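Quiz preparation item.
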């Protein structure tokens, strides 16, 4: 009798926010970066993609993906590369053990749900492809390590390779033409520096005007600052940042994080035509952090911005009250504070101009912290009959 079982595996995967930015590709087809990068994995309690991968001989092809209840194409080169690599690994297992079900030949049904805005500068593709790769790897019972799987996730979304590990993660750019040395590497686990916190100011939940893929390739082709950043700036910043993380030196971590964010966005502005990912609200957030640190008499907070206007502000748990005394009085009415202590009142150090812009321009806040890598979960988004579960 033919195998009619519906096989399922589910995982959640985190967002990561880079403190050393990935920007530019030396090989677009393999998603190989021109420079190394380093990120902080954020807690899945606050930011995650939940994905269920299922397959069955009873499913009709082709493979399908439902993201936040909307059908998505799996026919893109990136998606096809990930699925091909995962199927090849499963096929090797099946060739070696004839009794295994031929899952590599079955159509896939994939269902994903994000608990944060998609395509709004919050690394949705990183969490998405990390969850997809991890869920299918679990479905196929693959034994590859997260670092080995990062080679596959990288083909889907470069920064997704960093979301396959928790804590503080580097993505080495590598030098090989085949990309086998361009993979994620653990710098330090969450437990090493567990009191790292982050406040995200969501400036816009709209889709970006210039996608990261388009933007970085234009930068590579036109920016005069790009080569200096790639060859000189980033290698130095990587070394300094890894040292700061390993020694839990927040002052250096913060200095490099802000300097690196500014360098990245300066390169975007040096692109022809210039790419404006930051806006007036972003610049007000930068000013608020500068005023906060000045009042504290030391660096207790660090801003960074990916390819979008949302501010990510890192700080240590011991300095949380001081940091939130700046932002809570301004943004108290915004969604996302949860059960935060409402006794924290202003006025904080932010100047009136900063207060006005942030009040008007921030749509919500996200309070989070350093977190773990992907987690296998028993909650499936596809039931045992192969139907999508309402979420």
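Solution:
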């Amino acid at each position: 009798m033919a195998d009619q079982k519906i096989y399922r595996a589910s995982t959640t995967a985190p967002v990561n926010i880079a403190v050393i930015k990935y920007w530019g590709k030396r090989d677009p087809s393999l998603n190989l970066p021109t420079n190394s990068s380093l990120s902080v994995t954020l807690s899945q309690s606050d930011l995650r993609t939940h994905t269920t991968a299922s397959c069955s001989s009873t499913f009709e092809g082709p493979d399908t993906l439902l993201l936040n209840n909307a059908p998505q194409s799996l026919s893109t080169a990136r998606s096809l590369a990930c699925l091909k690599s995962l199927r090849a690994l499963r096929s090797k297992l099946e060739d070696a053990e004839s009794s295994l079900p031929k899952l590599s030949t079955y159509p896939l049904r994939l269902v994903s749900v994000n608990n944060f805005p998609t395509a709004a500068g919050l690394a949705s593709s990183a969490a998405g492809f990390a969850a997809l790769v991890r869920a299918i790897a679990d479905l196929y019972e693959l034994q590859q390590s997260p670092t080995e799987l990062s080679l596959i996730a990288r083909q889907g979304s470069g920064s997704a390779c960093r979301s396959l590990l928790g804590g503080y993660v580097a993505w080495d750019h590598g030098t090989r033409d085949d990309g086998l040395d361009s993979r994620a590497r653990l710098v330090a686990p969450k437990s090493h520096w567990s009191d790292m916190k982050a406040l995200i100011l969501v400036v816009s939940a709209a889709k970006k005007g210039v996608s990261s893929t388009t933007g970085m390739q234009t930068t590579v082709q036109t920016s005069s600052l790009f080569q200096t950043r790639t060859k000189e700036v980033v290698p130095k910043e990587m070394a300094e940042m890894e040292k700061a993380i390993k020694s839990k030196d927040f002052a250096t971590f913060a200095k490099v994080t802000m300097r690196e964010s500014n360098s990245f966005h300066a390169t975007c502005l040096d692109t022809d035509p210039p790419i404006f990912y930051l806006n007036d609200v972003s610049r007000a957030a930068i000013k608020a952090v500068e005023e906060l640190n000045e009042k504290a008499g030391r660096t207790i907070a660090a801003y960074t911005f990916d390819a979008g206007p949302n501010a990510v502000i890192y700080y240590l748990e011991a300095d949380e009250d001081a940091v939130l005394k700046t932002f809570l009085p301004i943004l108290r009415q915004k969604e996302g504070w949860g059960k935060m202590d409402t006794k924290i009142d202003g006025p904080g150090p932010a100047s009136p101009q900063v207060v006005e812009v942030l009040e008007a321009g921030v749509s919500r806040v996200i309070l989070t912290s350093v977190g773990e890598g992907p987690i296998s979960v028993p909650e499936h988004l596809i039931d045992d009959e192969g139907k999508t579960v309402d979420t």
